[in-house]
Amino acid sequence: MRKGYSVDSPMLLVSLIYEKRIGLKEFINTLNNIIIMQPGYARIVYCPYCSEKKELLSLMSGNTIGARYWSDLRMRAPMLPEVSPVQKCHHCGKYYLQYKQKSEHGEKPSLEQGELSYPEWKEAYTQFMNERENRNPIQKVDEKDIDMIRLRLIQAYNDYYYRDCVAEFSEEEWGYISNVIWDFIGSKNKPDNLHPLLIPELLREIGMLCEDFFESECFENLDGFDKIYYDGIRKRMEDDDTEVFEIII
Ligand SMILES: [Zn+2]
């Protein structure tokens, strides 16, 4: 391989050997240097309601090559698949927080991510909100869990109606998700290290962002991802556009 020529994508590497621009030895050497996604032994969890076993994906390595980012902070990275923090039990249909369950390693890898659809996130949210009221719940759900679920629910809504276009816009669902967004914004238990532009962005998505926001000095001298994110919010607000958007770096 030519000196100073670096490759960080397996697909690019394959195209280089296909075009005979590199030899087999160079191909193998370079491939070894690329961190590719590698599943490890499955992580086994048990449903806290019925003890049904579930084998989940566990990654030994991954990367963000080919990742896409959206303004609701949704990221989809093909080489870094994520296991849903909330899992639906295939046996009893209940939802549980997989990261709070005791786990053990399986004997073989699993590709199960247990991703939930928007209607399932809604069901899960209702279940967790009810359990929060329960004095002796089977699983303890705290305020931080609820806020994490709210953000996932908002992102699942955007998946359903915009990113994946599973269904047409619904006034009723928009009203529902607007209330979830208000509850998320008003909560004191939001996930740590949230991007400071997320709250203004969510306000824009429900048509409640004020012009004053753009006069704040906090958002001067932005660059890179933050600048693209900020400019995207501003332009769409000027256009009265409330849709989630992709942040293309
Ligand atoms: Zn179960």
Strand order, main sheet: write it out: 3-2-9
Number of helices, where a helix is a run of at least 4 consecutive DSSP H or I residues? 7
State Rg.
22 Å
Q: What percent of residues are in strands?
A: 5-15%
What binds here, in terms of ligands, is: zinc ion
Largest sheet: 3 strands, antiparallel
Please tell me what the overall shape is: flat
Distance between the termini: 29 Å
Proportion of helical residues: 25-40%
How would you spell out the order of helices and strands?
Answer: HHEEEEEEEEEHHHHH
How many beta-strand runs? Answer: 9
Give the rounded overall mean pLDDT.
89
Which spans of ≥5 residues are poorly predicted at pLDDT below 50?
1-5
Structural class: alpha+beta
Protein architecture, described:
The chain has 249 residues and is α+β, with helices and mostly antiparallel strands. It has a domain at 1-34. Helix content is 38%, strand content 10%. The chain contains 7 helices and 9 strands. The strands form 4 sheets. A 3-stranded antiparallel β-sheet has the order 3-2-9, with no helix packed on it. Strand 5 and strand 6 (75-76) form a beta hairpin. Helix 3 (118-133) packs antiparallel against helix 4. The longest helix is centred in the middle third of the chain and has 21 residues, at 143-163. The two termini are 29 Å apart. Mean pLDDT is 89; it is low at 1-5. Zinc ion is lined by residues 47, 49-50, 52, 89, 91-92, 94.
Features:
single chain; 249 residues; alpha+beta; three-stranded antiparallel β-sheet; 7 helices; 9 strands; disordered N terminus; binds zinc ion
Task: Give the SSE map.
Elements: H1 10-18, H2 24-33, E1 38-39, E2 43-46, E3 53-56, E4 59-61, E5 68-69, E6 75-76, E7 86-88, E8 95-97, E9 103-105, H3 118-133, H4 143-163, H5 171-186, H6 198-205, H7 224-238
Antiparallel strand pairs: 1-4, 2-3, 2-9, 5-6, 7-8
Helix pairs in contact: 1-2, 3-4, 4-5, 5-6
This protein binds zinc ion.
